[in-house]
Amino acid sequence: MTSEGAADIVDQDVFGGVDSHTDTVHVAVISDNGGHLADAEFATTTAGYAAALAFLTAHGRVIAVGVEGTSSYGAGFTRTARSHGHQVIEVNRPDKAERRRTGKSDPIDAYAAARAALSGRATSSPKDDTVGGIRALHNTARSAVKARTAALNQIGQVLVTAPEAIRSKYGQLKGTDRTEALARLRPAGDALHTAVLTALKSLARRVKELTAEHETLTRALDAEVTTHNPGLRATYGVGPDTAAQLLITAGGNPERMRTEASFAALCGAAPVPASSGRTNRHRLSRGGDRTANSALYRIALVRMSGDVRTRAYVTRQVAAGRTKKEIIRMLKRAIAREMFRCLTTTLNIPGIADLRPLRQAKNITLTTVAQHFGVWPTTISRLERGLSRDDDLAHAYRDWLRAA
């Protein structure tokens, strides 16, 4: 190749596409008019990522790189490319109709990712690594809950077919009482009784260990979430698990979500058009991140149970003739709007550290405070410890203590 030809290559604008896998990434390069230039495969190692970036830059100025799987198999390449100043765009895998039409292979998928970056069909920035620790703790805590549930179900199944003496003694117990009783067992009797009791004891101890593990992980998760976004965690009805899920869905760089409507759509809480002919209506979105949708649902249930404003809203909607399902849908949309503000803006959290010392200095019990405000003592205790947030109650509580 002549020096003039090499200069032309360096001066041209190119777009990259990456199809990522466990051990390899397939990289494709296209020109700014969509022409295929080259593709190659590289290992998912530091040296492989460096070689892949060198391969891209050798064909011209890299405008953007579309990567499939930026938060999974392509996370390593994404991290390396962004550290070298390249614009990385998150690309969804091609839909089934397109795959049936064009076929499926690593080069095909890599070129499709590059075309998605060129055409503007893919525009989302990948999530950064600031919520990586929250994601790891959240996933591990949820897996502990699933394993605990499986062990509890297995205990019930063993008791169904257990000998009558065992079933009558332990089958009537429920919850923690059953687990504690089975964990203290000393298997004895004939071979059948010994085997069944040994199995039940093992399962009960597994339940206790997983419960303790989940509590430890939840405390660590709560600390991480509170440090990352104290305003989100302090919002009424948002616990460690729901806050973590919303942060994972949004990513550590929430500026990638341009509007609260886009966040609602991401959580599957935005209505979508379902009109045809003379019919003009909307239906509930069934897409988006369903785990984030579940988090919004749990927040809605908590607020319907204990939040005064939400209960008043539900009462008004019931009087208007709406069903409970419709009301929850409306609440999820409103909660999505509030969560978007918590994720994208810095909220000032009113201090509550002075409440308990002030109460104790005046020898006032939790029961007295609860009776005055018409709430449970647990509500006041959680407010004092920062486990739940109610700014109106906190202000009224502080004024009452100062005047007492």
From TrEMBL:
Residues 233-314 form the Transposase IS116/IS110/IS902 C-terminal domain. It holds the Pfam family DEDD_Tnp_IS110. It comes from the Bacteria. InterPro entries: Cro/C1-type_HTH, Lambda_DNA-bd_dom_sf, Transp_IS110-like_N, Transpos_IS110, Transposase_20. Residues 17-160 form the Transposase IS110-like N-terminal domain. This is Transposase.
